[in-house]
Amino acid sequence: MIVNTILILLATATSGVICYFTGTYTTWWWVLIFVLFIPILYIIWFGIYLIPLWIASLFMNIKIKKGKPQPENGSKICYWFVRQTSYVVPFLFRIHFTRSGEFPKEKSMIVSNHTSNFDPMPILYYTKGQPVTCVTKPGNLTMPIAGPFIYNCNFIEIDRDNDFNAVKSIVRASKALSKNLASVYICPEGTRNHHPENGLMDFKGGSFKIAFKAKCPITVVAIKNTHKVGKQFWYRNTRVFVDVCEVIPYEKYKDMNSQELAHYCKHLIEKKLAERG
Fold it and tell me: Does the predicted model carry a pTM greater than 0.70?
């Protein structure tokens, strides 16, 4: 939250400086101007913050195109910026998280439903004490600014149209867990659910082979309302519910097959979402 705090302080200080040098502070309505300027200046300072990240991403992109492999442990500097930005974005888009349950301190495979690109934000927000590797679609690693950073954070791309590459991704994710390098976050639905009001899509059993190979706990998380953020952030806050349904130890699921485990996790999330209404 360091970057977010600095941006707030800079926006507040800049607003005060503007009010002082324009003489606005001598009027009765200076407080209104001072307060209204803060969110505008926050956005401006956030844009300035992105400039050096954009420049750094250009240099990282050059190395990636030359075939630089992803670091097994992930770059600590890149991960720091990714996590810090994950605190700024909810503030910028007026997202308020409400959590129930506790994320485990030990490394685990984290699974959740998937309705928005904002879904990883609460996962990163609530796992502050440990690195998290996200399993993502290939296109995300080539996004401007963010792509090179998450590439160097060892985010794992999975090509669901290529079984051989998908298996390689599963092995990489299980190794990250087995070596205790990071928790792994994956959405077993495989893609965003654009109509969450119609219920969850099928959970892909193959996603859970990561946990079987790593013999690690599975943290099942229900996320509600992230799909509303993009539609309403400009005029209202969004309350996003983040519920840890269950942390499933390996001993509990080791005798299940991957499809049975997928159904079980899907049921836990469906139940929690129904409770939230």
Answer: yes
Supply angle C-alpha 126, 146, 156, rounded to 5.
70
Q: Give the whole-angstrom CA distance, residue 208 versus residue 215.
A: 11
Least confident of 4-13, 166-175, 257-266: 166-175
Contacts of residue 271, defined as CB under 8 A and 6 or more positions apart, other chains included, come to 245
Cα atoms in the 13 Å half-sphere on the side-chain side of 254: 9
**Nearest-10 crossing angle of helices 2-21, 30-65:** 140
Pairing assessment for the beta strands 218-224 and 183-186 based on DSSP bridges:
unpaired
Phi, psi of 215 (to 5 degrees): 55, 45
Task: Convert 214-236 to b/e letters by CB count within 10 Å (16 or more is b).
Answer: bebbbbbbbbbbbbbbeeebeee
Beta bridge partners of 184: 109, 133
Residue 193 is encoded by which pair of tokens?
């659910």
- DSSP-assigned beta bridge partners for residue 82: none
Q: Please report the DSSP string for 75-87 in residue order.
A: -HHHHHHHHHHHH
> Residue 196 gets which letter from DSSP?
G
Please tell me what DSSP assigns to residue 207.
G
In this structure, what DSSP letter does residue 215 have? Answer: T
* CA distance to 36, 48, 237, per residue, from 95 (Å): 19, 22, 6
Residue 108 has pLDDT above 90, yes or no: yes
The residue to which tokens 């390689």 are assigned: 168
Q: How far apart are CA 185 and CA 120, in angstroms?
A: 8
Four-residue CA torsion sign, 31, 5, 238, 136: positive
Tokens of 18: 């503007």
Q: Which of 204, 229, 209 is nearest to 96 (CA)?
A: 229
Maximum CA extent, the chain: 74
Judged against a pLDDT cut of 90, whether residue 216 lies above it is answered with: yes
